[in-house]
Structure formats: C-alpha cells, structure tokens
Design goal:
This protein is an alpha+beta fold. It is built from 16 helices and 20 strands. Strand 6 and strand 7 form a beta hairpin. Helix 12 packs antiparallel against helix 13. The longest helix is centred in the middle third of the chain and has 19 residues.
Length: 487
C-alpha cells in the first residue's frame, strides 16, 4: 500500500478495513496466555492479519494512535516475551508456503507458519529441516526471533539456516535483507526478539528428507561427568536427560540412517503411566512435597532401559513436553559444562536431604550447539552446552519454582552463561553488554529502524533498555499468585 494512499485514509477508514481481522473484545482470542500458562495479558486490541496490506494498516494505526505493537505467534515462549497491554499482531494467519526449490534446497514461507505444518509441506517435496528443537509447535518467525536451537556439537542455532528475510519495518516500509544486502538488519533480526521489524517471509535452507536412528541409553551421572565431551560427540545429535532424584541420565544419540522406520511406544508406558499417572503424582506433590522424590524415581524407572527407534527426522528431534510448565534454560560454554553440572548436583543433593528443601521436577535437559556469529545468539562465538530445567504445572496448577531457578541461574551466571531469549530471566543491558560483543550494534539497528519504539513491549524495554517501573516489571503479566508460588 503506497504511502500516499495511507495518508488519505481516515481513522474510520482504517478501523473499517481492519474490522475483519480484529478479535472481538470478549472473544477467547482477545486474551493471550502463553503455552506454559505462566504469563497472561489482555491487549487493547488483537489483530490477526491475513496479508501484508493489513499489517501495514495496523502499524499505521499504531503510529497515529501513539500505541505500541507486539508481534506474537503461537505464544510458546515461557516468558512474557510476547505480552503487551497495547496492540497485539498475531501472525497465525500469515502461514503459507510461498516457494519450494528442490534443486537448490530452500523454501520460502511466511513467518507465521507453524513448524509442524512446515514439516508436512517439506515432506511433500522430499525435504526437511536439518535440525530442530524439542518441539515444533512454534512459528517459524518465533524460532528465528529467539535463535532457537536443536542439538549437535556441529550444528549451530536454527537461525543460521536463514538465507534471507523480508521484513516490514515500524514505519510500514518493506525491506529484504541477507548477509549481502542490509547485512546489519539481517544479523540483528536473526535473533531480533520482535523489535527490528515484522518478519513477513523467510527463505530457509533445508536438505533432502532423512530418517534418524536414535538410541537412548540409561547411564549414571558420574559417567556423564567423566566422559562428557566424548559422549557429546558420540553422534550427530546428542542430548541428555538427567533425573536428579536418582542420578539417572538418559543419553540420546541420533544419526542419519537409511534403515526402515521403527517407531516405538505403547499406550501403557507412554500414556497411562508416563503421562497420566505422573501428572497425578505431581499434583499430589503440591501438597506433599516429599512425594516429588518418589515421582522422580518412578519416572526414571520408566526410562531405565535401552531403546532404539528409527523415524522421520522431525519425529525423532521432537519430544513430548508433557504439561504446562515453568522453565528456564541457559547456554554456557561447553568447556565449563562439567564444572557447572557438578555444582548443580551438589545443590540438588543438599536440598533433597533438607526436609524443607526444594523438590526439582525432571528431567534436566542438556543439549549442544556449535558456535555462530549471530549478534544476540546465546551461542555467539562459543561451542555451547544448553542446560534447561522445568517445574511442571499439573492440571494447570501452580508449583514452587523461584528458589530452584534462582540457584540454577546463579550457577549458570558464574560460568558465563547466557539465557535463552524465550525464557524468563533477570538480565539487563549492563549484563548483556558484557555477554554479547554486538549488543551495542543491535541497539543501534533497533533504534535506526524503529526510533519511536513502536515495536517495543515491556519485555524489550526492561531487558534491552533497562527501563524500570511497574508497567515493565518482570511480573506485570503474571496471574494472581498462588500460595504455592511463594518460595
């Protein structure tokens, strides 16, 4: 839509044109809750545009009304990264595959496409993404905005597979960027946190579809500490799941294979016991905390056998994240991982011996990524070990988590850790400047493309700019606290 046409539109004209994509005020979509059910907001208006022209109108309306716009996808980020009390632009209807090139192995898709849908579209052309995180419920744009990672010591974060981006800036102008065109905007937007512009289209490098053979082997925690680097490099894609109540670790090793599919699983182990029974025990554990130790031992027993399976790549990469949860995850230099894990185990051991100590859930997930050059990637410049913890919310109820998370975050910080951008954390610009050599460059690009801060929500203002106050506080989008959240 040309600027001259926009200038002739009255506010009533804009409202009329956006009416079909405006969520009714009292509808379910007018309220936003993230997947983990840990943050909730009620934006002034929620828009669900279906094309670029409507996105331009939303930004024009925001500028005229002096409002900020927050771009949000599915809302899988466990933090308040997507939350706002002003305008929210949901990308869920900007979800089309625009081009598939099987010869050059790339796809161009709208940023609002959910990865699960992208996998299906790629499979129709015998293509697949080279690496994935633990889930595929998030949008492609959300994956890029937070530099989401998979696992593998030779595989960097997923944003490194992006070849180019088409971005709508805060002023409504359209920019195409890559490593050779508008390079600063590109490097900032590969982990842009939604503040460098609305990503419309993504050109993504992919590869021929492949299957993975995964072997899951139970081992002891001490063996992991002894052979850590060797185990991390034992396959293309390695991850570890640590069950702290027993010191059991499940060592997952996955490699590309030509073997036929061999999925595994049963209703008894995976559904009745592995899902429903554990959720019930976790719920009772809210009232009888010592039961959480028994539940952890039971969960470890369920996985205490070697399992081999072969399936399409994305079915092996992805795991069932079970229940809504509080979670935090940090990236630390792989060279410091063993020392950090020793400290974490010492803390947990002490707490388990204390009748009033914290009772961690399970598992602690340990993954790996190669070094990269993306400005705000937690793997920037370093071979990285990712360590993530969860405290589940059985049946959506709350559980204590803050004391446990503080202790883990202190250990991560002591080992030069960088938090996953999608997860809640407490760092501000002074710490981020130390951790990220290009943090100043990122702020410069953000200011250049959005000088009035149209795209900055409380998360961005708090963490990137260091703003303080009730309206940007860490708990501004928290629901009323449950008594069991006070720990």
């Amino acid at each position: 839509m040309a600027d001259s046409t926009l200038a002739t539109l009255s506010l009533d004209n804009i409202y009329e044109r956006l009416a079909p994509v405006t969520a009714p005020r009292y509808s379910k979509t007018a309220r936003f809750t993230n997947w983990g059910m840990s943050f909730t907001c009620t934006p002034a208006v929620v828009f669900e545009p279906e094309d670029e022209a409507q996105c331009v109108l939303i930004l024009e309306l925001a500028r005229r009304q002096g409002k900020r716009v927050r771009v949000a996808g599915i809302g899988h980020s466990p933090s308040d990264l997507a939350c706002t009390d002003e305008y929210m632009l949901r990308t869920t209807k900007l979800n089309k595959v625009l081009e598939v090139n099987t010869e050059k192995c790339y796809v161009i898709a709208q940023a609002g496409i959910v990865l699960n849908d992208l996998h299906v579209a790629l499979a129709d052309h015998n293509l697949a993404m080279s690496n994935l995180g633990s889930i595929s419920d998030q949008t492609l744009g959300g994956v890029i905005a937070t530099a989401t990672h998979g696992t593998g010591t030779k595989y960097p974060v997923l944003s490194t597979s992006v070849l180019s981006l088409t971005i709508l800036l805060a002023d409504g102008s359209r920019q195409v960027c890559s490593r050779t065109a508008n390079a600063d905007l590109f490097m900032a937007s590969l982990c842009g946190l939604g503040v460098t512009g609305l990503v419309l289209n993504v050109q993504l490098e992919v590869e021929k579809a492949f299957r993975l053979r995964e072997v899951q082997t139970p081992v002891l925690f001490d063996q992991v500490l002894k052979d850590f680097d060797k185990m991390a490099q034992a396959a293309e894609h390695v991850r570890l799941w640590w069950f702290p109540a027993t010191d059991t670790v499940v060592w997952s090793k996955a490699n590309r294979t030509e073997e036929p599919k061999k999925p595994v699983g049963s209703w008894l182990w995976d559904s009745l016991l592995g899902y429903h029974a554990i959720q019930f025990l976790l719920y009772v554990g809210r009232f009888v905390p010592r039961l959480n130790i028994t539940t952890g031992k039971f969960a470890a027993w369920l996985v205490n056998k070697e399992v081999t399976r072969v399936d399409d790549s994305y079915k092996i990469f992805n795991v069932d994240c079970r229940y809504p949860q509080h979670t935090t995850e940090w990236a630390i230099p792989q060279s410091e991982a063993v020392a950090c894990l020793r400290e974490l185990r010492a803390f947990i051991t002490k707490e388990l011996k204390d009748p009033h100590g914290v009772r961690p859930h399970f598992p602690v997930e340990i993954r790996f990524s190669a070094s990269d050059d993306i400005w705000l990637s937690p793997s920037y410049g370093k071979a990285t070990c990712w360590i993530g913890i969860v405290q589940y919310k059985p049946y959506g109820t709350n559980v204590p988590y803050r004391r446990l998370f503080r202790a883990f975050e202190d250990a991560f910080s002591a080992h030069h850790g960088r938090p996953h951008w999608a997860k809640a954390h407490r760092l501000g610009p002074s710490e981020l400047t130390t951790l990220y050599p290009h943090f100043g460059d990122f702020l410069r690009v953000m200011q250049d493309v959005d000088p009035k801060g149209v795209l900055r929500n409380p998360y961005a203002r708090r963490h990137l700019l260091g703003e303080q106050g009730e309206e940007v506080g860490r708990r501004v989008f928290k629901e009323r606290k449950d008594i069991r959240d006070v720990d």
